[in-house]
Amino acid sequence: MVLHPELEGAAEPLIFGGPAADGQRFAPAQAEIEQIADRIVRRVALRRMPNAQKRLAIVIYNFPPALGTVGTAAYLDVFASLYHLLKALAADGYHVEVPHSVDELRHLLLADGPAHGADAHIADWLSADEYRRLFPAYTEIEPYWGPAPGELWRDQRGIRILGRQFGNVFIGVQPSFGYERDPMRLLLAKDAAPNHAFAAFYTWITHKFRADAVIHLGTHGAMEFMPGKQVGLSARCWPLRLIGPLPNFYVYSVNNPSEAAIAKRRGAATLVSYLVPPVQQAGLYKGLRALRDAIEQYECNPDPALVADLRDRAAQLGIPMESSGDDHADVAGLAHELLRIEQRMIPLGLHVLGQPPAPTELADFLLLYASLQPNGGLPALIARGMGIDYQQLCARLSSDLAAQNQMREIEARGRAAMLAYAEAHDAEAGARAVAAKLADLVSATALRPLWPKLAELRNGLLANDELRNLLHGLRGGFIPPSPSNDAVRNPAVLPTGRNLFALDPYRVPTPVSMQRGEALANELLARLRAEQGAWPQSIAIVLWGTDNLKSDCEGVAQILALIGARPVIDELGNVADVALRPLAELGRPRIDVVVTVSGIFRDLLGNQMRLIDRAAYLAATADEPAEWNFIRAHALAQVAETGISLEEAAIRVFANAPGSYGANVNFLVESGTWESEDQLSDAFLSRKSFVRTANGQWREARGLLEGALRHVQATFQNIDSFEVGLTDIDNYYENLGGIAKSVERIRGNAPPVLVADAISSPGASRIASIETMLRLETRAKLLNPKWHEAMLAHGFAGVREIEARVGHTYGWSATANAVEGWIYDEIAATYALDDAMRERMAALNPSATAGVVRRLLEAAGRGFWAADEATLNRLQEIYQDLEDRLEGITEERSVG
Ligand code: BEZ
Ligand code: MG
Q: Is this structure's pTM higher than 0.90?
């Protein structure tokens, strides 16, 4: 059994001993004890040493390495945050030279890098001799990366340390994993060591710069993902070797409990949480707005001639519109699609450390929260005041224009009330303002239950302890703990600026999450049955830590429900085992599942892996008819064909090898070097084909994974965050796309790819096809001026965010062929072919702007986008021009 102190709140879960080989004594672990002692000495020093003497290293990232990517982190404007941090440090007595502006800071960090072929300014060099002397473990890197100092980030003077010193504060750019230059490494099943430059970077910080503490700025870097044990790391494991004795403050996104736990466990980090921008409604724009207006015209005057116009417009915009023979119903369906886009909740812009959101940014968010309360929350109360049954209204939404208009009006009233609430000078005044606004509709008594929760949200969002607590920690002070979640799911994550914990993994899935998981499993089955005409025999499911930690393992519960199993709770209240539900009670066949878990899930939720494995085993060995138990049917077939044991044939949980993370499909796609789609599935299958045997060891079992995937009729993942969607990060296409591509290869045809959407609108099913979700996501974000203006307000970083979304969209083409042509048309029109927009972006971040155009050309080149000749020629010209200008910058600088 492994305990998880970091999930429960401990800051540095370090091992100092364990049972000796004879099992009789407790044996101290000398090297680890020394490391812990060193770390404590450094902490105490932070408390004693005057700030003016302290030397701080702030680490930012550059992944994938490129000129336009330096300083990216999840929903964080890194340069603006850095700037505020430097000012706060100066005010707190540190010796730090603060540039005059964010732009100057960025310029100083990046500007002359390109002249030397580097992505950022070169602060210093670590010579080969010094590197070998200061980091004797280099010999263990050499088998993987060649003789020290290696080939990466290096010139004749030694290994380059990118970054710049501002007085006693060094801002450094963390090197990346290093396989970008050698993408075929990505196909290997296992990583084995950081590269020399990575090790040199931390060696330099520790021994040359002599930092007293390190701050990792934003979610997330690569240090804590370096290979090594997954639990109980030793002082010889790479992450602890790299961080050594240094206190490690890690500014981490509040909504990411799983990777946050890894940062603590493997990186000895003390977390300081940061807020992500509160979600707001996407709204309508351009053609979508015009379509909405046209629908309103039709409502005033339901002339059949207008319907033809609506059909044309919808077709041009790529919005599906039924032709049922009932025009009115078809228009209502179309209007409902528009409503879903309009109401889609999206985070706008980026967060700046220490800055609370403006009240106007909070209204939609508060309304969302108030709508998620029992029985329909605030909107239901307003509806009742208007004499409307809210549940019926939701049910009529997709087929009734009048119902949609009523819903809009309810929302408008709710939003106005929430805006008044956010703008009031305190929560009490806010409550009075809302009561006044809604006086004609809702009684003060009915509103009362809302106040404590809204006050918690409002006060929590407006108070912001991020900089304050970070400074306190740097003085050796205590950083208080906090849960980790989307703020709308759990307002207790506010105020931010705290050290994140997760949950007790022996208590989940809970009865409540079992109920929800079962409901979702039933929805998924109903949909597949309707589409495929029979029960699906097998579903491949991607499981992540984050959403499971946020939802008390609803994802695990779904899987148990599909199999027809339930948790067994022991006398201590722990989930100790699973049992099969009788078929008669289940009333349907047991569905086979193939579960690929993230490396993070494997590390944090090993007990849940065991529960699923055990449920699958119980099903495979149950004496039940094959047509009622697809796991048994498939496992017996596998036994008959290959002669393996039934136990092996029933293995249904697959993970990365210990100490390795990710499927690497994203890195291959990103690098553009893949030649055939088989390489993408190869990466996925080779990385994800590890299973844990009964005695707790791991072994590679690609044959078992491929055998299980042969029966898969659909692939599925929960998108269980209000804040992180399908195109916000590359990991969705890496995993869900990666498995879809693998099933396609093994079965010879592409499976439907389905997701469960956390943010479904009232009355709508949560299950959606990947194509539907991508349409919605792209319209709400990438193509939406409200979204891109909010990003561009952050300049350099905002352009990089746009480029990243384009890259992730393209990733969905590469893995699941799920991107419709109009999406590329519109991306091209919005960002590349529009001269004003392109020039504006190029002025802010030329490299990322060129990246957008390059990605579009690649999409066309690989046949994902059937652009016409003229468009492609124009894009080529534009790309050439942007590249010439980039080279121009480089040459000018090197001459100067
Ligand atoms: C996880 O929580 O398992 C996860 C988070 C981010 C990317 C991939 C996986
Ligand atoms: Mg990650």
A: yes
